[in-house]
Amino acid sequence: MIGVIKIKNFIIFLLLIILILLLPAAAAAEKDILVLHSYHQGLEWTDQISEGIRSVFPYQNEVKIYYEYLDTKRNFSQEYYDKLISLYREKARIIDFDAIIVSDNAAFDFIIEYGEELYPEAPVIFCGVNNLNKNFLEDQQDICGLVEKAEHRANLDLILKLHPALNKLIIINDRTLTGKNIKAELELILTEYEDRLNYEIWDSFTIPELQNRLLKMDQNNVIYLLVLNRDQNGNFISYNQGIEKIREVSQNPIYGTWDFYLGKGIVGGKLISAQEQGRQAALMAEDIISGENDFSGQIVDDISSKYYFDYNQLQKYKISQAELPADREIINRPQPFWERNYQFLYWGLIFLSLVIVVLLFVFYSKHQERQRIEKLNRELEEKVEERTKELRKMLITDDLTGLLSRRRILDLLEVELEKCRRYKRELSLLMLDLDFFKDINDSYGHQFGDQVLEKIGTILQRNTRKLDLVGRYGGEEFLVILPETDLKKAALVAEKLRQKIKNAEVTGRDFKLTASFGAVQFEKESSQQLIKRADDLLYKAKAEGRDRVES
């Protein structure tokens, strides 16, 4: 017993020693990385860069990621910058960061100017920086990163190839810091296309002015959308808002350079991926903080751009996929049958397997299972019979004419009259009766009489509006409810129907059908009183010689 206690104490002691040794190592392994964004959280470009960084550094204790946003798309005054640096001076005292990742030009310029003061000796990794003069960083050994290279040549060549009838290329850009840098890059490249490309650069406008200019564009113009985050008055424009405002007024094809416009209205292009830039910058940071590589002063061009196209836009502008680069990817492409129905097939197989298992169980259980199934079948048949009875009660049409039944037409009349009372609307009612219908039955038989009634039902349905309600009141009498109709118009409808009936031909017999009508307008009385007035006028029409309308 004593020996067991000694062994137990020894094991506990050994575990304590191991824990004590591991704690300093774990503490030493913890690293702090600051991600300094030029723009604001919620901007798609910025959020995608963060996603790329998080793909390398998922949520874990070993590496802690801190995010800061300069918000320069929406705030760009000198007064704002002065207050911003004061804020970051206070924040910089709290944590000594092991690495700084900066995205885009504003954050890059900020770290160049204040990095040594705020975060001394912390290596800086940048991404999303445009128009960077690499010579500028020759003496900056603690800075490395990726220069964002928009594939303007590839996109201009692509546009010229896909649109041989191109009249003019409209380049839409803004005057933000990023926009100015992109414009500087593009203007150098455009000099190579002077002889074969007619273009205009639009970079100073309000949104209404931009839309007005787009409305006047030639149908053979193509739009090359760069950056559209601020108008000439300094108003912020999100990526979604920018392309939406263009799409509202223009049917011209749009190409781009960044993937955040893909699927929102651009045909495509060789597109830069924010997520891939964030991932590459994070990989460099990972090597630096782990000691595997310091990347001192290493500046590389981002070569992650790929050709992407939107299937819906290709179809809209009748662009053949055969004309596209071989290494492209196409989004929104209709899925093959097997992919489109994968879940259905998957669950169908599971269901089929379950059915087989159930059947095997049924056969195995023999008599008892059969009794249980018979009982379930009886219960199911009872429910079906009950449901069938309910459905029969729900039948609302006249079997012979296809019109509303008497009960249904009267119910709907009550509903329409209530609407008239509540909303002070007009409503008229027509009652019609076939003339000498008894003679038709006596002379030609009831089957032929049924044919006549079917014919009348067809005439009434085809010559009334969708909102009108037509029903068989009984025998050869019919009701027509005319919502939003005064008596004068109702009389015209009745006259039209009278003429249609009179001119109708009934196959196999040479005689003329006629009908008498009573037309009344609702005057806040009950439905019975309204019908009574229509019925009185109907019989007046018959007394006056039939084949007429009384109102």
Automatic annotation (TrEMBL):
The keyword Transmembrane helix applies. Keywords: Coiled coil, Membrane, Transmembrane, Transmembrane helix. Residues 425-551 form the GGDEF domain. InterPro entries: Diguanylate_Cyclase (IPR050469), GGDEF_dom (IPR000160), Nucleotide_cyclase (IPR029787), Rev_trsase/Diguanyl_cyclase (IPR043128). Pfam families: GGDEF. It comes from the Bacteria. One of its GO terms (molecular function) is diguanylate cyclase activity. Residues 366-397 form a coiled coil. The chain crosses the membrane at residues 344-364. The keyword Lyase does not apply. NCBIfam families: GGDEF. This is Diguanylate cyclase (GGDEF)-like protein. It comes from Halanaerobium saccharolyticum.
